[in-house]
Each structure stands twice: as structure tokens, then as C-alpha cells.
Amino acid sequence: MVKNSFISVISQEEKEENRGSVEFQILSLTNRIRKLSSHLELHRKDYLSQRGLRKILGKRQRLLSYLSKRNRMRYKELINQLGIRESKTR
């Protein structure tokens, strides 16, 4: 089984208060992406899960784009904490 590496950057108290914040949404999507990725390593032909993963990746990308436009410093801090690459600008 693949080791699950879920992130808990935000404390429990902050989770209950800021569930609608962009950072929390990106954090929860990143956890779901990592969980689905580990699932797909074991089940390569699970095409419905692959489709769901692509949808989640697109949603996270849109949220990251929104955050980078609104507040560049929060965006930089978040991608460094989560260990994800910076998106390409068009």
C-alpha cells in the first residue's frame, strides 16, 4: 500500500472557522488529489477515478489562479507549504 501523506497545515480551530476560505478549499482538494493518486497507482484502469482526478485538478488550478490574482503573497506561501508547483502563466 502506498503511504498516505495528507497535509494538516491548518489547525483544527481554523478548520472550523474558515471552511469557505480559498486556502482551505485548496488544502482539501490537495488532500483528495493525493488520496486519488495513491488509489490510481494500485488501480491503473479505474477510468472514472481518473476523470474525477482531472476534474479536481482543474478546480484546484482555478482556485490557485484566483488566489494568485487576488493576493500573490498568500499564493506563494500556500504553494510552498503544500509543495506544489507554481502554475504557468499564459
From TrEMBL:
GO MF term list: structural constituent of ribosome
Superkingdom: Eukaryota
Keyword hit for Electron transport: no
Location in the cell: Plastid, Chloroplast
One Pfam match: Ribosomal_S15
Protein's GO biological process: translation
SMART domains, alphabetized: Ribosomal_S15
InterPro entries: Ribosomal_uS15, Ribosomal_uS15_bac-type, uS15_NS1_RNA-bd_sf
Regions crossing the membrane: none
Keywords, sorted A to Z: Chloroplast, Plastid, Ribonucleoprotein, Ribosomal protein
GO cellular component, one term: ribosome
Annotated family: Belongs to the universal ribosomal protein uS15 family.
NCBIfam families per UniProt: S15_bact
Quaternary structure annotation from Swiss-Prot or TrEMBL: Part of the 30S ribosomal subunit.
Name of this protein: Small ribosomal subunit protein uS15c
Taxonomic classification: Eukaryota, Viridiplantae, Streptophyta, Embryophyta, Tracheophyta
